[in-house]
Amino acid sequence: MKIGIIGLGFVGLSFASVLASKKYSVIGVDSDRIKVSKILTGKAPFHEPGLDDTLKIALKNGLKITTEIRPVVTECKLIFIAVGTPQREDGSIDLTMIKDVVREIGKNLSKTKNIPTIIVKSTVIPETTTKVVLPILEKESRKKVGKGFGLITNPEFLRETNAINDTINPHVVVIGGYNDKFAKEIENFYTKFHKNVTIVKTNHQTAEMIKYANNSFLATKISFINQIATICEAIPGANVDIVAKTIGLDPRIGNLFLTAGPGYGGSCLPKDVKAIINFSTKYRIKPTLLDAVEKINQQQLENIIITIKKKIGKIKNKKITILGLAFKADTDDIRDSVSIKLIELLLREGAKVTAHDPKAIPNTKTIFGNKVEYPSSVKEALKNSECMIIMTAWKEYTEITNNELKLMKKPLVIDSRRLLVNHNLDMDYSAIGVG
Ligand code: UGA
Fold it and tell me: How far is the CA of 311 from the centre of ligand 1 (A)?
C-alpha cells in the first residue's frame, strides 16, 4: 500500500521518514524546490534530533520526494495532508495552503480511477474538514465522498525536538470521519503501525476540537504556573519549581508542563490558542479563560523588561546579552520565540544586543542581520555585558560559572529558566519564579 504525505515540515517529514524507514512505500511532497533538494541529500531543512539518521534510512529504503502532487493522487491509497496552517494578523487560521493542496488533489482525483483516503493531519479549526476541505474535493474531483474518495481528520500531537519518538510512540491516535470502509482502512493502518496505542474514533469536528483542546490545555498549564511564579517572586525564599514538583505529585494535576518560564512560544501553542479564541468569538462565546492564558503569556515578557529596567535603569546604549534564541532547547526553530520578541523590544529602546544560541543563530540572522552581535561562545557573549538574560534552557547554559560571569561589566543575571538558581553566584541574580 503506497502512502503519500503532502507538506514536509516537522510533522510531514518526520512521518514520511519514520514510515519509509520501516519499509512502507512512501512519496513525500513539498512545493518548495530548495527544501526538496536538501531532503534528497539526506538532510532535514531544520534541526530535529534523530531526523537526519531516520531520513537517510528512509531514502535508502526508497522514500520518494517530489514537488508533484499528481503521482500521490494516482498511486497512493492513503494521502496525508500535513501543510502548515499559520495565523492571520487577527489571530484567525490561514487556510490558504491547505485549500491550494486540496484543490490540486481534487483536480488530479477527477482524472484517476484510484480511490484514495485523504487524511487531514494539519491542525484545522473545527468544521474545516467538512465545510472547507470536503466541498473543494467534491467540486474539483466531481466525485462523492465515501465513493470516489474517503476523508478523515487525524490530528497530530508530536512535539518538536521529540518528533521521531512521538511519531513512533504517540499517546493516542484520533480518527475523525464517517463510520465507513475508509475509516476502517485507516484504523487498520494505525493498528499495524503502532502496537498498543489507544485509537479514538469520532466525527470530523470532534477530532478537530480535540487538537485545539489539547494545545489550549497545555498553554493553560504553562500560564497557570507562570502566574504562580510571579506570585512566588513576591515572597522572599519561595521557589516555583518546588511548588510545581509538589503539586505535580497529585495525580489529578500531574507533573508535566508545569515549568515556569518566559512564556510559551513556537509554531503551535501561540497560534492555536489565538485561533480558538478567534473561532469562539465568531460563535459569540467569550473565551474568558483562554484570554487570560494569552494575557499571562504576554505578561511574562513584560515582566522581564520591567526587571531589566529596575536593575539597569535606561536601556539605551547598554550592552545586553541574550542566551538562547530558539523557542525551546534542542531546536533551531525561532518561530514565535519569546527571545526574539525580547530582542525586538530591546533594540527599539536602543540597547546593544549580543545574542548566543547553539543552533538558532542562522535563523535569527534572517530577522536581525547585523543589528545584533553573534559571538560564537558564551564567554565572548558575556564580555563587557551589563546584563545577561537566559531565555532558552540549553544544557550548556547550566554550566556557566562565576568565572565566566566575572567577564561582565556589571554582574547582573536574569534567569527566565532558573538554570543557575543553585549555583551560588556572587552577583545580582533574579529568576522567574524565585522570591
Ligand atoms: C506543542 C505541543 O506540545 C505538541 O503536543 C503539539 O503537537 C505541537 O505543539 C503542535 O501542535 O504541533 P511544540 O510546539 O513542539 O509542541 O512545543 P512544546 O514542547 O509544547 O513547547 C511550547 C512552548 O512552551 C515552548 O516555548 C516551551 O519553552 C514552553 N513550555 C513548555 C514552558 O514554558 N513550560 C513547560 O512546562 C512546557
Answer: 30
